[in-house]
Design goal:
By secondary structure, this protein is α+β, with helices and mostly antiparallel strands. Helix content is 46%, strand content 12%. It has helices spanning 15-26, 33-46, 48-53, 60-72, and strands spanning 31-32, 76-80, 87-91. It has a three-stranded antiparallel beta sheet. The longest helix is centred in the middle third of the chain and has 14 residues, at 33-46. The radius of gyration is 14 Å and the shape is globular.
Amino acid sequence: MEAKVEFPSDIKRTRQREEIFKILSQASEPMSAQDIYQQLLQIIGTAGDWGEACGGSLALSTVYRALSAFEEKGYVHKSTLLGEDMSYYEWATGQHKH
């Protein structure tokens, strides 16, 4: 049984970061910032109060800033495949994947 992953206490908590945390910590494979952004847009579209709180929109730069904050503290692993310009992110579980 896997332990429940909690939002990091040393990261500033915002609604966007909470949703990015949920998406990444539950993802079965690494995701691009664009993939995360698309999921967030779907969440905003179905969560009226959050959509209103965000002005009904969300910038891709917000996703990158949140990913950077998680990566700085070691909660997210970032990787770029050879020959690709896009980076992929995954929640650091403390286990090495080979």
